[in-house]
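Action item from last week, closing it out:
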Amino acid sequence: MLAFVRVALSMATKEIQGEALLPLPTWEWDVAALTPLLVLIRYRDSALRSRVTQLESHLRFFSGFYLFYALPFAALDGRWQLWPAVAFSVTVYAGIWYTNRQAARTRG
């Protein structure tokens, strides 16, 4: 949630004051993008994730948000500090896919 506030505040202050009170996120965005990956590592068993209400959908949503924000700025604006956030977000999606695939193989 703090990431949403951070982006909104940065955009709003730039629009109102002509310059951003807070610059666009850099390294702290990497830390925020790491959080869903740590949760996925903690709940790597897909059966356990399915018992925790909407955990997988939350992981996908937040990782998608970080990816959607970090990738254009890293690729087009030259902010190399955001590439770890891109990598963490993609790793979450790959990890969800992999653990769900492993669970499907053992069930069926």
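Closing note: The chain has a mean pLDDT of 82.
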